[in-house]
Design a protein that fits this description.
Residues 1-189 form the RNase H type-2 domain. Helix content is 44%, strand content 16%. The chain is an alpha/beta fold. The protein has a single domain (3-140), classed as Nucleotidyltransferase, domain 5 (2-Layer Sandwich), CATH 3.30.420. Helix 1 (42-55) crosses helix 5 and helix 2 crosses helix 3 (74-87).
Length: 189
């Protein structure tokens, strides 16, 4: 039975896309060291990112843009990214397991939500790593374009440094305008 693990990265930040990944692992080609991406070092995540792509039977990375987040809300945008990731797999899974307590709407395959699944199920751990590394890489690219914001360091999360950068340099196109701190910076609240 093909089981796809699904997870996301980037729900909490004030900027950028929410990224989701879906992974079907090969039981005959195990990957050592899989865990919740937040519990791994960046170096370990990068190593596992490549190993997952080499050894998995199928994997996919998808996203919902900052514009879609503003249009639909973060939860619905997360579900959209997850659905896109599952639909992009080159192998159709018979079951989807998702980290969290809700099943994304629109996935037409048997689906189970597992709280803490990114630490307890290898398929979800692998998806967690693909999503986190992809999202972090996007923040490094944004940091190159906008070096005054510190995206490489805080990854777009609502930190003191990020708020100070917004106060000093303003909101940029990729900020999520539906988020209260961004609205405040734009004087929309």
């Amino acid at each position: 039975m093909f089981i796809a693990g699904v997870d996301e990265a980037g729900r909490g930040p004030l900027i950028g896309s929410v990224v989701a990944a879906a992974v079907i692992l090969d039981p005959n080609n195990p990957i050592e060291g899989l865990n919740d991406s937040k519990k791994l070092t960046e170096k370990k995540r990068e190593k596992l990112f490549l190993e997952i792509q080499e050894k998995a039977l199928a994997w996919s990375i998808a996203e919902a843009t900052h514009t879609e987040i503003d249009e639909f809300n973060i939860l619905q945008a997360t579900f959209l990214a997850m659905r896109r990731a599952v639909e992009s797999l080159k192998i159709q899974p018979e079951k989807v397991i998702v980290d969290g307590n809700q099943i994304p709407k629109g996935i037409e395959i048997s689906c189970e939500a597992i709280v803490g699944g990114d630490a307890s199920h290898a398929e979800i751990s692998a998806a967690s790593i693909l999503a986190k590394v992809t999202r972090d890489r996007q923040m490094y690219e944004l940091d190159q374009q906008y070096p005054n914001y510190g995206f490489a360091k805080h990854k777009g999360y609502p930190t003191k440094a990020h708020f100070e950068a917004i106060a000093a340099h303003g909101v940029i196109d990729q900020h999520r305008r539906s988020y209260a701190p961004v609205k405040r910076a734009l004087n929309l609240l």
